[in-house]
Amino acid sequence: MAVQQQRSSTISSTGVLGNVPAHIWAGLLALVGAVGIYLFANANDPQMALFWVLGLSFGFVLQRSRFCFASGFRDIFLLQHGRTLKGIIVGLLVATVGFATLMSRQMPNTALGILPPDANVLPLGLHTVLGGLLFGFGMVIAGGCVSGSIYRMGEGYVASWVSFIGIIFGVLASAFTWNWWWDFQIQDGARIWLPHEIGHGGALALTLVALVAVYLLVLWWESRGGMVIPDTPFEGKPEDTFANKLSNLFRRTFVNGWSPLLGGAVLGGLNVVSFITERPWGFTGELSRWSIGISNELSIGPGILDGVADLPGCTLELGNDGVLHFMLFLVWGMIFGSFVAALFSGEFKIRVPRQKIRFVQAGGGGLIMGYGAGIAMGCTIGAFFSAIPSLAINGWVFAFFLAIGAWVGTQAIQRIN
Predict the structure, then answer these.
(1) Which residue from 151, 136, 163 is spatially nearest to 66, judged by alpha carbons?
(2) What is the helix (H) or strand (E) element at residue 16, kind and residue range?
(3) Which of 52, 83, 3 has its CA nearest to residue 264?
(4) Nearest CA-CA partner of 91 in 399, 320, 417
(5) Which of 52, 197, 372, 408 is most buried by a 10 A CB count?
(6) d(CA 108, CA 370)
């Protein structure tokens, strides 16, 4: 399966209004729409408006850095380069420092045995293992994980919208088996938070050392493959005038692609802001709110789910709190933010797969991802990118089996014509 990386635009980059390219005007118009939605959200609840801004920021950074967990794990196995995976690790390092600082203030006395509120410390068990395997396999088959699907949706990839729909139905399918998983594993699963075992300082140090070790392992793995993918060099104007300096700043931000290292660092920082504001960055819980809530309203849903009200992270939600919710604005803000970034960079284009098998791969991979995320209580964002910085063992277990699932998926896609 070829991974489409081309950057093009359906809107001509030649100027139509003065010297400003058409796609810039389209981006400015989209920004006006974003401001309008912000004002609407703020009139209902300032928290909704804040998470709309956070969503826009996440989506913008995802598109600018083309940040995708699927490509990070797939490329290390398929091409033996870890350009994106190193960005993921940098993001984890940044988020870990921020999360640890916040949690040490929330729970200064770890001897009490109390877990920090909203940190993604989740029950461990077979559901974590299977969820990681399924999600890793599904994201490679679909051609993108949740983050990759989000920014490609904003760029106009039809297959990514199909994958998004598949994830929603996969999450709903997991809800029909949730009570079985709850009785079998989840309710008795250990929630292991490292500061309970070795204190805040020890937990932070151990996690940072482990992440640095993984980074070095990626460097060693790359050296075996010998592939080097340099960042695209910046070609700007001579910075001899104020106007040229502004032009170069604009191009660096909105036109030239960001490196995955920069993207990962910014996403890690935004995750810290999200945690300080309400909860760590997540995605699956909101999709479950839609699918479970609607299906229950139609009397065809899974009904009541045991234990979900007492679990943090991206645990399945029943959707009983209405349509307008701050996480709704976060999810759609991410999609809209990537759309705005794609317009400004001239990379928006409606892309329909030429091979019909891509629709099957996207939908089927999304379905598998959704089920895995449902039982693991999070995807690569909630159960991995927000769980490891929570100093939780479940994040590492999910990551390990996510990698195995991605490796299996890599073997599979090489056999798909």
Answers:
(1) 151
(2) strand 15-17
(3) 83
(4) 399
(5) 372
(6) 36
